[in-house]
Amino acid sequence: MNSLEGKVSDAFLKEFNLPKEFISHEAIANAYYTYEKCESMAKLIKDRVNFDPKIAIICGSGLGDIGNLVENAVSIPYTEIPEFPRSTVLGHLGNLIFGNLSGLPVVCMQGRFHPFEGYSMSLCTLPIKIFKLLGCKMVILTNAAGGLNRVLNVGDVMLIKDHMSFPLLSLKNPLIGVNDERFGPRFVPINKLYTKSLRELFKVCSHELNIPIHEGVYGTIGGPSYETIADSRFCLTAGMDCVGMSTSHEAIVAAYCGLKVLACSIITDKAPTDYEDEEPDHKEIVKVAAAKAKDIEKLICCFLSKIKEDLSLIE
Ligand SMILES: O=P(O)(O)O[C@H]1O[C@H](CO)[C@@H](O)[C@H]1O
Ligand SMILES: Nc1nc2[nH]cnc2c(=O)[nH]1
C-alpha cells in the first residue's frame, strides 16, 4: 500500500478515478499539500511570529547572511514547522526569519529546497504558496550560479531578466496536477515573469551604490552533477548566461500565486566550457558567495527602501 494512502484527499482521487500509481509524482505532492493544509501551515507560522511580511526573500547557497540583516528578527527553524521540508545542502541553514529590512516587513528563507535533494518541484516551491498565504506581495530570489557568458566574472551580480529551465521544459513543473484556483490559474503566462519595473529599480540602485551589475538569462539544470563541457556549450548557445539548479521553478510558482518577482545571481565560478577548465566545487561556491554577499545585500536593501517609497510597485 502506498504510504500516502488515506492522506491524499478523496476529492483528488475521485477527479482522476485511477489508481495513484498512474498519477504523476508532482500531481500527488500537490494534492497532498492542499490549499487548506497550506493555510494551516501559514496559520501556525503566523500564530508563532505575529507578523505580516510583505516581501519574501529566498537566500541562495552561501547567501544566508542576508537573513542576519533583518531587524527585530524572529526565527523559526524549518524543523519546527510540521510537514515543511528540511534543508540538506551546505550553505543553506534552514530558518525562516521574520522582521524588518529597510523598513519593510519581510520573511527571509535562509536556505532553499532543490529538486536534486529528492524533493518534488511542488515541495521545492511550497514555501512560495505559504508566503502568499502570509500576505506577501513579492519574492526576491537569490542564487549562486556558474557564469557561462564570458563577460561574467566571479563575484559579479547578474540581475535575472529571463530563465530557461531543462526540468521545466521537460514536464517537471511544480504546477502539474489538479489546479486550485485559490492559489492561481491553470495556465500561467511567464513571458513577463521578472517584472521590468522592478528590474529598472534595481538598476537605479546599482548606479546609486556604484555596484555594476549585468542582466541576463539564468539557466536551470537538474543537478546535482554539474555540467559536462558539451552541456555548457549547449546552454551557452541556447542563450543561458549563467547556470544553477534552482530559482526558475520558484519564480513560476510566485507568478502563479500573483506575486511579483525580482531575482539575481552571484557568479561564484565560471562554468567549464573547455576540457582544461577547473571543476566546480560546492564548498568553494559557498565560500565565494558568502565573501561576495555584501554587494547583493546592499542592492537588496537599497531596492527595498525604494519599494517602501512607492508600495504601488508591488501591488
Ligand atoms: O541555487 P542555489 O541554491 O544558490 O545553489 C546553487 O549552488 C549549488 C551548486 O553548487 C546548487 O544547489 C545551485 O543551485
Ligand atoms: N558550473 C556551475 N556552477 C554553479 N555555481 C552554482 N551553481 C552552479 C551550477 O549549477 N553549475
What is shown here, in short?
It holds the Pfam family PNP_UDP_1. The protein has 315 residues and is of the alpha/beta class. The chain has ten helices and nine strands.
Describe the overall structure:
The chain is an alpha/beta fold. The chain has one domain (33-314): Rossmann fold. The protein has ten helices and nine strands. It has helices at residues 10-16, 25-32, 35-49, 121-124, 126-134, 166-169, 196-209, 229-238, 248-256, 282-309, and strands spanning 55-58, 71-77, 95-101, 104-110, 138-147, 157-165, 213-220, 242-244, 260-270. The protein has a five-stranded mixed beta barrel. Helix 8 (229-238) links the parallel strand 7 (213-220) and strand 8 (242-244). Helix 3 packs across helix 5 and helix 7 (196-209) crosses helix 10. The radius of gyration is 19 Å and the shape is globular. The model has no long low-confidence stretch (mean pLDDT 94). The site of guanine has 15 residues, from strand 5, strand 8 and strand 9.
